[in-house]
Structures are given as structure tokens and as C-alpha cells.
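Dear Dr. L.,

I hope this message finds you well. Following up on our conversation about the binding site, I have prepared a predicted three-dimensional model of the protein together with flavin mononucleotide. For your records, I am including the exact sequence and ligand specification that went into the calculation, followed by the C-alpha cells. Please feel free to forward this to your student if that is useful.
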Amino acid sequence: METPTTEPPVKVAALCGSLRPGSYTAQALRIALQGARERGAETSFIDLRDYRLPVHPGDKAIAATDPEGQRLRAAVRATDGLILGTPEYHGSFSGVLKNALDYLAFEELEGKMIGLVGVSGGAMGAFGGLGGLRHIGRALHAWVVPEQAAIPEAWKVFDSEGRLKDPRLAERVAGVGREVARSPGITSAVSRWNSCTPGKRPPGTLAQRRGGHPLVGWPEIEY
Ligand SMILES: Cc1cc2nc3c(=O)[nH]c(=O)nc-3n(C[C@H](O)[C@H](O)[C@H](O)COP(=O)(O)O)c2cc1C
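The resulting structure of the complex is given below.
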């Protein structure tokens, strides 16, 4: 008789690109994480204020020796999916988020789901920042979900409890988290790859093994 297997919960983290106390980006990310939990995900919040991350030195070997960079990489590596949150700064994403992302590589993000949430002070939303983050996700071989949430005039749309006053906007933000947690084929494939006994893991990167698709190339892997 076959023993039924229980998939471990998908792990989704939010990475916040604002260091400001009371950040609206952070508030939006907490709503997105709630959406991920509704889909059964285990969630965590990566607050860059808890990291003393130096400006990336431009040399990957030197960056790899930085203990805070290592800590950040380990936190992201432990996830199946990531929700990036950014404030719009001069029509783009924040420098603090870019610096953190520069510490990450394929090992942390390849094949994983990424969701995007942005806030802005002005009425135009965070579309500049979100577009740039989408490019970064592609460069890191991650799967950036099509759903994204931009929150314009963030200073007037949250209540004192950090909830969005407009339920439709709240639903859109939560939907980003739900989508990141949703793709069980891709996320469980990544979990399987990550939990694969190192000696039994096939050579090459996850992308090379996938043959261009995350669900291709798995049957030969031993666990
Ligand atoms: C350096 C800087 C640049 C900004 N540039 C823009 C901008 O281009 N467009 C905009 O709508 N808001 C801009 N803002 C306003 C922020 O998007 C807004 O204050 C946002 O709430 C900040 O996010 P936070 O609350 O998570 O810190 C800028 C703020 C700063 C500090």
C-alpha cells in the first residue's frame, strides 16, 4: 500500500526595500504575506534594518565573505518564494533594495517565484520600480508572477492598524502573496532540488537541469 506523502508548506518571505520606521511598503508586504498564508504558506519578513549590509563592493568573492551578506543569502535560500516590496524613489525602486539584491545570486533565486509590491507618495504608483524589479527577477532566473500591486498616495490609503482602507486594493495586494504561494509545481520542484541529497544532485544549475522548464528533468533525481 502506498504511503501518502505530505508536501511541506511552501515558504514565502517578504523583502522590504524601505528602512523608514512606519514604512508603507512594510505594511503592504504584511498584507501580501497574509495572502500567502491563506494559500497555506509559511511566511517570514526580511527587514533590512536588521542587517548591517555594506554597499556591495563590486567583487563577488569579497561580497561572499561579508557575514551580513551571508546571513541575507541564507534567509533567502531558505525560501521557495519571495515578495519584493519597494517604495518608488525617483521613478524607480529603492537603492537599499538593489544593494540587497546585488548580494543574491542564482543559488538564492533561480526557479523561485517572485511577487512585486510597490508604494509611492505620488499619484502615479510605483510602476517605475516594479518594472525594474521585474527585470532583476528575470536576470536572476526567477519566475516573476504577472500579478503585481502598486499603491499610489500611500500616505492616505492605510488606516492606523496598517490595513488598506480600500478592500479592492487590499485584495490585490494579498493576491500577489497568494500567487507566489500558489504555483506548487514550480515551488515544490525548487524545494525538492534544495532538499536533494547534495551528492545525489545532478550536475549543473537548476536552469540547465530544467531544460528551460521548471518541471522538466526531475524523475532522475534521487532523494
Ligand atoms: C528619495 C525619495 C524619492 C522619492 N521619489 C518618488 C517618486 O519618484 N515618485 C513618488 O510618487 N514618490 C516618491 N517618493 C515618495 C515615496 O515613494 C513615499 O514617501 C513612500 O511612501 C515611501 O515608502 P515607505 O513609506 O515604505 O518608506 C520618494 C521618496 C524619497 C525618500
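In brief: The longest strand covers residues 143-151.

With kind regards,
A. P.
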